[in-house]
User: Fold this.
Amino acid sequence: MGINFILILKAIVIGIVEGMTEFVPVSSTGHMILAGSLIDFRGEFADMFTVVIQLGAILAVVVLYWKKISSSIVEFFKYIFTKGREGKTGFRFGINVIVGSIPAAFVGFLLHDAIKGLFNPQSVIVGFIVGGILLLIIENIYRKKKPEARDIDEITPKQALIVGIAQCFAMWPGMSRSASTIMGGWIAKLSTPIAAEFSFFLAIPAMVGSTGLDLFKFDFSIMNTSMWIALAVGFVVAFIVALVVMDKFVSYLKKKPMQVFAIYRIIVGILLAALVFAKIITLPAL
Assistant:
């Protein structure tokens, strides 16, 4: 059997979409669902593919923030082994990541199948619009207030828990994990860039855990050479694009508000809803 170049091309498209949208507040899952529907990239392999390439984006976090991650891991265990005499900063950061990850882990484990049932374009449209409106409202209320944490090491466990609870809203496709955690960060009185960076770190356990659950249920016997190539290509593309976008996004947040993302979400959601209602395009459930 020859190589399916059309499948690989679709994998590149979805990889670009994932890399561009994973860490900005527009919903990577929502965009991948819509893009997959429009280019006819659906089915069991497509479902697995969109989950696995998210790990490519997560690898971008590890590479970009390797110094912080590695030093925090060393300090975390140093704090334990020295009984608190050394490594306090890294230990506190590790505790914050753990505390911030607990709500999503708990809800995701209990409602995993129900959440997967929401993965359709109709849910995405609702998530786009509602998430965009919430982004406008919450930014308008909290962004003008003086943040209590302007450095990631100033975050308290209470603030981490608030952000972690907010992250649970991202389980509705189209809401966006980045948007949900940044809004949680505003409520917890974090500066916008720090809220965004903390959301990057929370993405690591959240997405690795979610991917593990999905891959455990996947039937790898259906995989062929083209699928393996498509998976590898999509992973690499998502990693490279996410690496570039993530760095630019944090720089953007240091200077400008997130209104443009909220407006984009609302416009795209309304446009898609109108096109579907008018039957100009058809976005079947996945």
